[in-house]
Design a protein that fits this description.
This protein is mostly helical. The chain has a domain of 158 residues: Hypothetical protein af1432. Strand 1 and strand 2 form a beta hairpin. It is globular. The termini are far apart.
């Protein structure tokens, strides 16, 4: 019998690495399935609505840092979603739209939060792989594999938790998302984002009627998101902001 030498063991490791490089998920029976904090198994390619639990959406978003972690202090996707929800309430948006705002990034709780520049790069790569030299307009309209998976996850989440799928990425929700982005960028990014291009939302300031902590701990952010998820009610519109959000035509970042 051939002795098991260090060189032979190293060769087996190299062979395994070459065969399964980047495929650590093969440790699972179904590589595209994710085990959540509540113990559910979610198929990331074909998610079943019954596997999508509110507590998992809250935790996944609360433990995902916005801006890829490049912020002055920890700031979660969950807290961002609450801000979008509360900005919509501030303008008097209907309850379905406010709820859609709260869930607009919920798919990221299971798929991970990709920063907007990476989403753009993936769309550009998708077109370039097809032999296209894309224009910015083509990139904005393209769909990467991540976008396709995100759309499926949105549909599963919407089916399970009574979300208006049409409102999820509506003009009102996208505008509130951009409004929140500007508020967050000024407070959390090193630059304050003065060199960002494009048309900014007309109201960059945080309204007096909206409470924003700007850096809750993950568990506190999860609890706040769950509180909004269980009580999706809109307040009366603030007199000077009704309709302010729906005037924007820029797409979501």
């Amino acid at each position: 019998m051939t002795p098991d030498t260090p060189d032979r063991r190293a060769a087996r490791v190299v062979a395994l690495t070459d065969r399964d490089r980047g495929l650590g998920a093969l440790l699972a029976e179904q590589p595209a399935q994710l085990e959540t904090s509540s113990g559910q198994i979610v198929d990331l390619q074909h998610p079943a609505p019954r596997t999508i639990e509110l507590v998992d959406l809250a935790r996944g978003q609360a433990y995902s840092c916005r801006f890829g972690g490049h912020v002055r202090r920890y700031y979660s996707v969950a807290e961002h979603a609450v801000l979008v929800h509360d900005l919509l309430e501030h303008t008097g948006a209907d309850p379905a739209t406010c709820r859609a705002g709260l869930f607009h990034d919920a798919a990221e709780a299971l798929l991970g939060d990709l920063v907007a520049p990476l989403k753009w790069a993936l769309r550009a790569e998708t077109l370039q792989a097809m032999g296209i030299t894309p224009t910015p307009e083509q990139i904005a309209a393209a769909r990467s594999s991540y976008d396709v998976l995100s759309d499926r996850m949105d549909a599963a989440i919407a089916a399970r938790h009574r979300i208006d799928l049409g409102a999820l990425h509506s003009r009102a929700v996208c505008a509130a998302d951009l409004w929140a982005l500007q508020i967050e960028a000024r407070a959390l990014l090193t630059s304050g984002a003065p060199i960002w291009r494009g048309t900014n939302p007309p109201r960059r300031d945080l309204p007096d009627t909206v409470t924003w902590q700007a850096g809750l701990a993950p568990d506190a952010a999860a609890a706040l998101w769950l509180e909004r998820a269980h009580t999706p009610q809109a307040r009366p519109p603030h007199p000077d902001t009704t309709g302010a959000l729906v005037t924007l035509k820029r797409a979501c970042p």
